[in-house]
TrEMBL record:
Belongs to the carbohydrate kinase PfkB family. It comes from Eruca vesicaria subsp. sativa. May play an important role in maintaining the flux of carbon towards starch formation. Gene3D superfamilies: 3.40.1190.20. PANTHER family: FRUCTOKINASE-7-RELATED (PTHR43085:SF7), HEXOKINASE FAMILY MEMBER (PTHR43085). Pathway: Glycan biosynthesis; starch biosynthesis. It comes from the Eukaryota. This is fructokinase. GO terms for molecular function: ATP binding; fructokinase activity. SUPFAM superfamilies: Ribokinase-like. GO terms for cellular component: cytoplasm. InterPro entries: Carboh/pur_kinase_PfkB_CS, PfkB_Carbo_kinase, PfkB_dom, Ribo/fructo_kinase, Ribokinase-like. The lineage of its organism: Eukaryota, Viridiplantae, Streptophyta, Embryophyta, Tracheophyta. CDD domains: bac_FRK (cd01167).
Amino acid sequence: MGENAISGNLTIDTRDSETLVVCFGEMLIDFVPTVGGVSLAEAPAFKKAPGGAPANVAVGVSRLGGSSAFVGKVGDDEFGRMLAEILRLNNVDNSGMRFDDKARTALAFVTLRSDGEREFLFFRHPSADMLLLESELDKNLIQKGKIFHYGSICLIEEPCRSTQLAAMKIAKESGSLLSYDPNLRLPLWPSEEAAREEIMSIWNLADVIKISEEEITFLTGGDDAYDDEVVLQKLFHPNLKLLVVSEGPNGCRYYTQEFKGKVGGVKVKAVDTTGAGDAFVSGLLFSLASDLTLLTDEKKLREALLFANACGAITVTERGAIPAMPTMDAVQDLLSSSSRS
């Protein structure tokens, strides 16, 4: 099979392209211990699960009833084929996926230790996702997107770094809204300085940015993540339409050119926080793809952020990221029950 061949691929119906969310970046296999609260070395066995933030977001948008596509590279191996099939089964357009016959699909061993810290061990030396070439981009698919969503993992090494910049340029020139979730994974970067510099190198190109409290502290060099002035002076840029700070169970803060505020979280019993941030992003992008006016209408924006908070909340009630991504019915049920309580 050639690099670009794919069996069982799914291409979007062009009628959906008016609300299409195109997600660019890594898709990999997470290996998670079969028991909780242990280090990787202590784990008796591991269970495999599809992973990668941009792919999670693509599935999240589709699960809500939206239109999404994934652009990235996996190995021409059993795991790569499995990931392409998972996207297809979740109604995500996977026609922008490419298969590398020389590099393997990335693997990540991840655990939540008893002290609450996450522990990662990555196998990317190099992995296929790092080797996506600009010449392999499906330009037509990228141009169809109402929103183009990406992270920072692909900025770590060439050739993927240049490919991401090229994809962002194609999307911007076609009128797509650019959405950025840095999704900091320090163990993958050569140094903290390199991570900070590269993550900020594309900061001013985004229309919408979602970050966590920890990422604010990291990117500002230790400043107070809860200080509005820190966020506005150091992280808000003139072209930015929306900056969202996710606060986990406490909800989120939002900043636009015209207004700022906070939307509270939706209370649930957490089982596994994996994928909660990606579910939040998918909920927000689903709403944005349907109605861009919520960027300038605070009432609509607050409703969309409450919806996104509920998406994140539902995801933590189940194990895994993609399996736990919520349906529209589940989100509406949670919102109606929380409004009654």
